Amino acid sequence: MKKLHTSGIRRSLEQTNIRLHDMRHHAREKNYEGMTEEEVTIAQYKAHRWSKLIFVIILLAVFIILAGAELAVGDYDIDLWSVYSILIDHIFLGKPIETLEQTVVWEFRTPRVLTAIAVGIGLAMAGAGMQSMMKNPLADPYTTGISSGAALGATLAMTLGFTLISGTYGTIINAFVFALIPSLFIIALSKYRKPSPAMIILSGIALMYVFNAAQSYLMLVADPNATSAVYAWTVGSIDGTDWGDMPFMWAVVILGAIIMMYLSRILNAMNSGDSYAKSLGINTDRTRVIILLAVSILAAGIVSFTGIIGFVGLVAPHIARILIGADNRILIPLSALVGACLMMVADLFIQAVLSFAMPVGLITSLIGGPIFMIMIIRQKNEVW
Amino acid sequence: MVVEIKATDLGVSYGEFRVWQGINLKFDEPGLISILGPNGVGKSTFMYCINKILIPTEGNVTIDGTDVNDLSFKDIALKVAYVPQASNETFAMTVMDTVLMGRYPHSGFNTSAEDLQIAAECLKIMKISHLAMRNFNELSAGQHQKVMIARGLAQQPDLLMLDEPTSNLDVYNQMHVMRMLSKVAKERGIVILTICHDLNVASKYSDRVVIFSKGEVYCDGTPQEAITAENITKVYGVKAGITEVDGRPYVLFYDGGDEQFQ
Q: Would you list the DSSP string of B103-118?
């Protein structure tokens, strides 16, 4: 009896499907009636491009809601509309920050949210660029040993007090400079060997071992307080930033975004292999080094402020690719949006669900890993 | 004006191993030219020397009188297009986006209406308009090959080089592609260079045949001049006979017995 029932449902579903298919087919035929083959292709392509824009618009809306929620939630709850009106009043109408509510939103929470967004945008764009440039879905912003370089730089500052520049920014500058060493190393090597993806990955791994060994030694001989501080740094958190950090961090992110957008078409071509990219007029060896440097500065600029926040740079481009495909011209901006949203979701989870402070780097990896698994199993487009 | 490609005393060595040397070839008439020769004889290497993917160890290649070494990749891309043998995409875009990539040397960041028109025409020429919105990696090897040829045509080069463009195609599509290339070459007044392993398809549609063998150009001429039983036996080491189909030489292969394959 039950079996009969379900097969009936299945049949009616199938019929509905067939009808829907016919309707769609009919609509397409009707729409394109009287058009030449070329005109139909172009019309389809344009419709396809518009459908991609819809994803961008939806994600923008999600982004705005998440940012508002991030600013509203905390020990001192503020409702969502007040948050938006405080922001609009202050940014666009120039009203001063006076009340407690305004101070909480603008002085305490906005830097944190801006950091989360910068991290998401920066790491996601760097990840998308790295994956396309290396032709490798496993590449992330840290692939070349950026994170281990940054960690060693920070460790040197925290355990030995060795900093390249003295002052409050000592640790950050240390991390930034050391994070750039792997890509500078590859640039130096590229005079003798072609900077192929394999060469970039392997020299990154080689340097990572050296950096890790040095870092482990420093932590072994350091006093426990310093070791604990290093551990906290390597987990990655957005708690420590304030308005003073914003100019440099955002300068790096905006500069990186401009460079990545400019390179997006070249990245598309490089995805078809070096010899084809060359035949399109792209000097692949030189371009690869430029992309590497841009991605490194972007990732280093972020990691030096926040520590190593994993997973966002790897997974945001994959989510974006599932949504809109592999065209870097739209993939890079959409990855940035996805990355920013992921960071805010992770931070909201800490603020709203957990009652204790936790570094956001732990949450991104903890929640992100399983989500990534589900997506790999479910995705049908076979974009990678 | 037709482009003039000239290779002078060209030689390539990989370390100790010499691929070929003393190659002198000139292409300055519109038409379909097939490069034939056994595996590993350096046919692809010759193409790489023309668009600077590889720097030759001896001699040089000029495009319209200018040494390719003095041209940037971009300058070359405006005149020479290359269609690789196999696709090599990691992250696939739609077929239309893939073909539009061929417009890269001509257009800036944005895709113009003209680019769209050209790409759509190339899809039509290759009879793959129905695949326009499909993802590149959902297609078969033969369809990949047709998309890549469309991408090469979209670049609107003066010299179009194709590395075994028909290797994955069925007999209908082999004939369609070679026939279309021969027609396009004359209509647009461009030189089309293909590497080919099917002697009979090459013979049927080529205007000129260049046979590479043992480190040199063995033979260069019309299909009637180049594709003879004697040449095929010498170059490929296979017992062959020739008959005529559609006014062109047609090669018949015979099993030469155990001694042939020793």
A: GTTTS-SSPPHHHHHH
Residues from chain A contacting residue B145 (CB–CB below 8 Å): none
The predicted pLDDT at position A4 comes to 43
CA–CA gap between residue B260 and residue A86 (Å, rounded)? 88
pLDDT confidence of residue A380 = 58
Per the CB < 8 A criterion, the answer to whether A42 and B118 are in contact is: no
Enter the DSSP assignment of A272. T
Q: Which residues of B touch A41 (CB under 8 A)?
A: 96, 119-120, 123-124, 129, 132
Gap between the Cα atoms of A267 and B81, Å rounded: 19
Q: Choose among A353, A74, A118: nearest CA to A241.
A: A118
Of B51, B82, B116, the CB nearest to A42: B116
Residue B156: closest C-alpha in chain A:
A280
For residue A26, the surrounding DSSP H or E stretch is helix A2-31
CATH architecture of A111-378: Orthogonal Bundle (1.10)
pLDDT along chain A (384 residues), means of 10: 46 51 51 82 90 91 95 86 90 87 89 95 95 87 89 91 80 91 90 86 91 93 89 86 90 94 92 90 90 91 90 91 90 96 92 82 84 72 51
pLDDT score, position A281: 92
Give the C-alpha separation, B76 to B50, whole Å.
9
* Token representation of residue B214: 């043992």
Residue where the block lists tokens 């730089």 = A153
**Is there a contact between B124 and A272 if contact means CB atoms under 8 Å apart?**
no
Mean pLDDT of chain A: 86
Distance CA A45, CA A51 (A): 10
Which of B91, B131, B155 to mutate against chain A (most A CBs within 10 Å)? B91
**B201 and B174 Cβ atoms separated by less than 8 Å:** yes
ipTM surpasses cut 0.85? yes
Taking CA atoms, A16 is separated from A19, A61, A358, B97, in Å, by: 5, 33, 50, 33
Pairs across A and B, CB distance < 8 A: 122
Q: What is the pLDDT of residues A105-118, one digit of tens each?
A: 898 899 999 999 99
- The per-residue DSSP string of A304-357 comes to HHH----SHHHHHHHHHHHHH-S-HHHHHHHHHHHHHHHHHHHHHIIIII-SS-
- Domains in chain B (CATH in brackets) are 5-94+154-261 (3.40.50.300)
- What CA–CA distance (Å, rounded) separates B26 from B31? 13
DSSP for B90-157, please give it: SS--BHHHHHHGGGTTTS-SSPPHHHHHHHHHHHHHTT-GGGTTSBGGGS-HHHHHHHHHHHHHHT--
A325 touches chain B (CB under 8 A): yes
pTM as predicted: 0.86
Mutate to test the interface with B, among A24, A36, A39, A41 (most CBs of B within 10 A): A41
CB-CB contact of A276 with B147 (8 Å): no
Per domain, the residue ranges of chain A are: 111-378
Is the pLDDT at B56 greater than 70, yes or no?
yes
Q: Which residue of B has its CA nearest to A269?
A: B101
